[in-house]
Specification:
InterPro entries: Globin-like_sf, Globin/Proto, Globin_bac-like_CS, Hemoglobin_trunc. This is Group 1 truncated hemoglobin. Keywords: Heme, Iron, Metal-binding, Transport. It comes from Agarivorans gilvus. This protein is an all-alpha fold and 119 residues long. The chain has a single domain, classed as Globins (Globin-like). Helices cover 61% and strands 0% of the residues. It has six helices and no strands. The longest helix is centred in the N-terminal third of the chain and has 18 residues. The radius of gyration is 14 Å and the shape is globular.
Length: 119
C-alpha cells in the first residue's frame, strides 16, 4: 500500500513550506495578486497549509470555510483559476515534488474549479 499524498509531500512540514511558497508566488503574480491586497499573509499561508494538510490525508486541522463559501461573490475568472494552477505547479517544482504527486495535486485543484470559478 502506498503512502498518502500527505506523507509523500513531506507531511506537515513539507506541506507548510509548499503552501507558503504558493502564497508567495500568488502575491507576485500580477494576474491574481490584486485579490490579495490588504490580506493577512500569515493567515493566508496558514489557511493554505491546513487546507492542503487535511485534503491530502493528514490530520484534519483545517478550520476555514468550504470552497464555495470562500469564493462566493468573488467572480473568479477561468483565466485567474488557471493562473492559480500555474502558480501551484511552480511551487511544486520549487519544492522538488515528484511527477506523480504533482499530477495528483493538480488534479485535485482542477477538480475544485466548479466550486471556485464564477461564483
Amino acid at each position: 500500500m502506498s503512502d498518502s499524498l500527505y506523507v509523500r509531500l513531506g507531511g506537515t512540514e513539507g506541506i507548510t513550506k509548499l503552501a507558503g511558497d504558493l502564497v508567495d508566488i500568488h502575491l507576485a503574480n500580477p494576474k491574481i495578486s490584486p485579490r490579495y491586497a490588504n490580506s493577512n499573509v500569515a493567515a493566508l499561508k496558514n489557511g493554505a497549509a491546513t487546507f492542503f494538510i487535511a485534503g491530502t490525508g493528514g490530520p484534519n486541522v483545517y478550520q476555514g470555510k468550504d470552497m464555495v463559501a470562500t469564493h462566493k461573490g468573488m467572480n473568479i475568472s477561468g483565466e485567474e483559476f488557471l493562473a492559480v494552477l500555474d502558480d501551484a505547479l511552480e511551487a511544486l517544482n520549487k519544492n522538488d515534488v515528484g511527477q506523480r504527486e504533482k499530477e495528483e495535486v493538480l488534479f485535485v485543484l482542477y477538480s475544485m474549479k466548479p466550486e471556485i470559478v464564477s461564483l
